[in-house]
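Escalated from tier 1: zinc ion holo job.
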Amino acid sequence: MKSKSPNQNFSLTSLYCSTFGHRFEISNKITNYTNEYKCKSCSQEVTKVASGDIELLTFKNKEINKCLSEFFKKKLQYASTH
Ligand SMILES: [Zn+2]
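Tier 2 regenerated the structure:
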């Protein structure tokens, strides 16, 4: 049985991205100044970190954003009810 690489499409789109650059769009709004972005071509996910840099959306960064998001929502709720 001949095995076909499941990453064939991905490598083509990532070639496109490495040539023309990623086409990021906001996939998840975390706070007023932090968002998660997803590339429309290769689905690579990145996020803005506290330092203002863009980093790959790793499991660790996802967890940080989840906490940030919950904290931010609570803060907004508190501000609107007090
Ligand atoms: Zn891309």
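The two ends are 66 Å apart (CA to CA).
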